[in-house]
Amino acid sequence: MEAAGIPAGQALKPRRSEVVSEFISKYGLIAILIAFPAYYGIQDLIDDGNLTRIGNNLADGLSNGAIWALVALGYTLVYGIIELINFAHGEIFMIGAFTSFALWAPLGLNPDTGTVALVLGLLVTLIAAMLVSGSLNVMIERVGYRPLRGAPKLAPLITAVGFSFILQNVGILWLGASQRGVPDLIESQKELVNIVGISLSRGDLLAFAVTVPLVLLLTTFVGQSRLGKAMRATAQDPEAAKLMGINVDTTISLTFLLGGLLAGAAGLINTLYQTNVWYFQGFTAGLIAFTAAVMGGIGNLRGAVLGGLIIGCIQQISDNRIGNEWTPAVIFAYLVLIMVFRPQGLIGEETREAG
Amino acid sequence: MSTIQDLRRRRWAPYLLPAVVLVGVAVFPLFRPPLDGFMDDCILALAYVVMALGLNLVVGFAGLLDLGYVAFYAFGLMTMGWWASDFYTGVNGEEGIHIGVSGFAATLPGIHLSFLIIVVGAILVCAVAGAIIGLPTLRLRGDYIAIVTLAFGEIIGRTFANGDEITIFNDYKLSNGRQSISPIDQIDLPLLDPFDSALNLRPYYWCIFAIVLVVLFVNFRLRDSKLGRAWIALREDEVAAASMGVPLVKTKLLSYATGGAFGGISGAFLGAYFSSVNANQFQFGFSIFILAMVILGGLGSIWGVVIGAVLLAFVNNRLIPDVLDQGFVGDKLRDIGLNFSFTEISFGVFGFILVIMMVLRPEGILPERRRQMELTEGIGDTESVFEARG
């Protein structure tokens, strides 16, 4: 498209319309993002004279966003390396949630369990959920995406949509088609601290306590380790990486494993936090997390975390103010706006084919 | 042997099989009772054929993966709900607006327009909606297009499903929300008696069959037209097409608009046939149902898509509820202790079809010749069919 538009060499002095469109693409998205909380913040100031309500929204939103960040990282990792929107990723998250719920009863975890046993039990659940989700993701890649590596690009995307539906229906067979409440093991709504009216609950703390170390581990792994270096090399240029002796197939499998592990962890936190599981939760979560990944700049790890936190806040404000039946529409509207104004995201890196 | 070769040489020979099939399909209701369950399935199947052919224009011809096709179904159904029911009871001082309707519908309050007017309206609404949905995708690459169309499909579905909270003006709402709008007028064509789906399904069958014929004709003409060739060029290589003078923006938007219009026609028909408009069914799963038909039949292959749509419609309405759940297979499964309902997991079946087809036979049951060449050519080298900058 660009090739057809601007003749080279003549664009020394940009025309006014170009300046305007560049300005919009730079700050338009940020302005839209700020406008949403700002509007309700001002409304709060007028109604109550303080910012407690919007503050609480944002606090809840950030902890919710921490969960989305974990899921979004899976999208971004996979997109970064094979440029595939792993549509089934939301369902991987859902399977993680189901696995952790299914393990609580055999492990004897219930709200009356003592603290030490509870922490140990949840740790076991966390590891199990991560492993199940991770290996499932690797399996899907092996069966569904690897045979299509050379095929037209939409082929693996369609397979991914197919897997997403298959997993949703596995969820229906597993726990039925309706939402199911789960025991509130950690009393997630219990208030821990209250700073100027903004309350932080146990669930909020848990979300951060799991997310922050995992994100740090992941960034260290991708940034420092040999395998992480191989991942980055493959993301940059798979052909060249192969020539340098990197096993591209293994590296891609590893990427799916990492994404799945994070999604599994997010599944457990979400179960503890929301105290319900549902086969459809993965679809919604997947699209929210995908929006987060795109917002941050797909392929960019820090971007995914930032996008997750922002989208969490938007979701919380929309749930609380507009009504949660409209939240998906609000999130999707943001997705479309990002695509229109800034497809490369807030802090997007130029990926192989970005543009 | 020689007679077959003779036959092959005739110019009309390739049209023989389709002609025989079409005539057979046209006359078969005469041999069935007027309220036949099988005919009911056929009517649904033909309505899905129209939608699948519409989606095929976008995905198969122009190569733009549209995951939000349910939006057009929604608009088609809703135009029927708005213009052929007593939903807007208060209009014209509770007298109602009636154009081209006779019989019982002409006495009811609300807006009641002739089916032909509504079909034209649905085409216009869907074409405009298609162009609007297409606009933000113009700058985007293949997989992003899929997500944006999906997002639009969900936004539109959500908006109609919660439409009872949206007031257009006075106390006229956008939709009836989670409650369905019902009853919808029966189809009432000029020169014919109003149809009655409670007594005789044959008129509905012939009506949708006529629509399928028109849509098929339009599809073939479009495929061979300048526009159709531009779509295929776009699918094969966007940059090359642009440099050969194909106007990208216009071509892409026209593909969304035309594809959407077919969805609108089918939606309007189904609204009249179901005699109710239910916003709960505007789900992502529906888009995938239609997409699976196109993929199963063969992207870009018109006859293939027809076969795919009929097959999946029967899988959905016959095989899954009657054979797998109630019939022999269901009994056997229950005997060995597998107690679950296939109807509940029907979308899993469609997902499975998508995966199997893509991995084993991406060109579909009845592939288009050109597409098959593209697909086999594409394997192994970096050239990508869907993607301009591959």
CATH-assigned fold name of chain A: ABC transporter involved in vitamin B12 uptake, BtuC
Q: Which band does the percent of strand residues of chain B land in?
A: under 5%
Based on the coordinates given, report the CATH architecture of chain B: Orthogonal Bundle
What is the count of structural domains of chain A? 1
The total tally of domains of chain B equals: 1
Strand order of the largest sheet of chain B: 1-3-2
Helix content of chain B: 55-70%
CATH architecture of chain A: Orthogonal Bundle
User: What is the H-and-E element order of chain A?
Assistant: HHHHHHEEEHHHHEHHH
Question: Could you characterize what this model shows?
Answer:
The complex is a heterodimer of chains A (355) and B (390). The longest helix of chain A is centred in the N-terminal third of the chain and has 32 residues, at 16-47. In chain A, the strands form two sheets. A two-stranded antiparallel ribbon of chain A has the order 1-4. Chain A has a two-stranded antiparallel ribbon with strand order 2-3. The radius of gyration of chain A is 21 Å and the shape is globular. Chain A is built from 13 helices and four strands. In chain A, β2 (191-195) and β3 (198-201) form a beta hairpin. Chain A has a single domain, classed as Orthogonal Bundle (ABC transporter involved in vitamin B12 uptake, BtuC). In chain A, α2 runs antiparallel to α3 and α4 crosses α10. Chain A has 355 residues and is mainly alpha-helical. Chain B has 390 residues and is mainly alpha-helical. Chain B has a single domain, classed as ABC transporter involved in vitamin B12 uptake, BtuC (Orthogonal Bundle), CATH 1.10.3470. Chain B contains 15 helices and five strands. Chain B has helices at residues 2-9, 13-27, 37-61, 70-83, 115-134, 142-161, 202-224, 226-236, 238-243, 248-274, 284-297, 302-326, 328-335, 346-360, 369-378; strands spanning 84-85, 97-99, 111-113, 167-169, 172-173. In chain B, α3 packs across α12 (302-326), α7 (202-224) runs antiparallel to α10 (248-274) and α12 (302-326) packs across α13. Chain B is globular, with a radius of gyration of 22 Å. Residues 380-390 of chain B have low confidence and may be disordered.
